[in-house]
């Protein structure tokens, strides 16, 4: 972006009559920022464990179908709304609704998106804190000689320590909001440059190592052989929810990144590249983790600890494992950080533009709210672990509420808004797809397949088709 343009962007929008809203400095930076948002804990931490919990292949297939039919068309729509609306999610939707002479209530779609982003961030920073906590653990060589039971015990000990968790969470929040309040461009651009290739290479190394365990075939079978008897209506909903989570949809993040998008950048091409990279990283993570899981007699359904239990075993055994382990958790942390930054940006832009507070003040306000909420997630793993609603802890509830309800709902409203409220001419101009057939295909997906897909998954999940 030009200068410190996220910060400049917010300030300029407040005085929009005088200063033009600023933009990403190049298409490449925009691609990096969008990929940085998409690739994160969702790919490396969440995808493997929910795949394990939901029986493997059939779940992966449904997830890929959701990315294609729902995620990609919606990601394009979010970029388009942001670029056309030139404001935070609420302001952008309001501007477009005004232009289309539609109800002012549509703006609430943007408001809910901003709040959803904050709710996600409140537990995202806790998991990012786990990655941070594992950096010194790896550095001190504590992974060497771990077996499945010892690694599980090590992770359980981390979760049982609320003060350590809260310390790490607080540190993650400080780093995220510190970066955001100072201006994102420098930090984001620089970290993305080595983070993306670095994470990719480390994952490849891990896949290579996993292939030597003798269980690679079993993992391939688990990930890619679809056994539909293993997937339930709830599993399909989790797959849909994850396609939103992993592409950062339904919570304003991609909308606000789109609002810093210069005209002339191809939304369609960027979207495809982001989706492809994101899916590639998730599948690589699966290919690294499942052979190790089988080789060490761990349960695929063990839940959120899967990555944090399986990978340390490998780091403890492989050549140069100590160094690779340290690098891996640093990369994972940075991947989480670039996602966390994008999760906070809708709220920061909203606060600065709507209430004309400065960026540091906006960061402070959201930081305070986030910190209080994150305590609930921290305690879910220890003091409050027995406090459950329908068997779900506070952390589980936050995850379920956001990924399986709020994001799909926000996404549904976004596609209905773009496909049915805005005029075709406006959308066609705003999205900038030159190829008439391609535009037609996207327009059809956006108006029909995407909303119907989301609805069918919801109805399926509440058991309407059973
Ligand atoms: N996509 C990010 C991940 O996979 C998480 C995220 C969700 C980021 C929503 C921004 C908005 O880790």
CATH class: Mainly Alpha
Residue stretches low in confidence (pLDDT < 50, at least 5 long) are 1-20
Mean pLDDT: 91
Q: Determine the CATH topology.
A: Amino acid/polyamine transporter I
What would you call the quaternary organization? single chain
Gross morphology is globular
Number of domains: 1
Helical coverage, percent range? over 70%
Give the helices and strands as they follow along the chain.
Answer: HHHHHHHHHHHHHHHHHHH
* Beginning-to-end CA distance, first to last residue: 50 Å
The structural class is mainly alpha
What CATH architecture label applies?
Answer: Up-down Bundle
DSSP strand content: under 5%
Sheet of most strands: none
SS summary, helix count:
19
Protein model, in words:
This protein is mainly α. The protein has a single domain, classed as Amino acid/polyamine transporter I. The chain contains 19 helices and no strands. Helix 7 crosses helix 14. The N and C termini lie far apart (50 Å). The site of phenylalanine has 15 residues, from helix 2, helix 3, helix 11 and helix 15.
Strand and helix layout:
Blueprint: H1 5-14, H2 27-38, H3 41-53, H4 57-85, H5 89-99, H6 107-139, H7 148-159, H8 162-182, H9 185-211, H10 216-224, H11 233-246, H12 253-259, H13 267-295, H14 306-317, H15 321-355, H16 359-379, H17 394-421, H18 424-431, H19 436-461
Helix pairs in contact: 1-15, 2-9, 2-13, 2-15, 3-11, 3-13, 4-5, 4-10, 4-11, 4-12, 4-13, 4-17, 4-19, 5-6, 6-8, 6-15, 6-16, 6-17, 7-14, 8-15, 8-16, 9-13, 9-15, 10-13, 11-17, 11-19, 12-15, 13-14, 14-15, 15-16, 16-17, 17-19
Residues 37-38, 40-43, 120, 245-246, 248, 251, 253, 339, 342-343 line the site of phenylalanine.
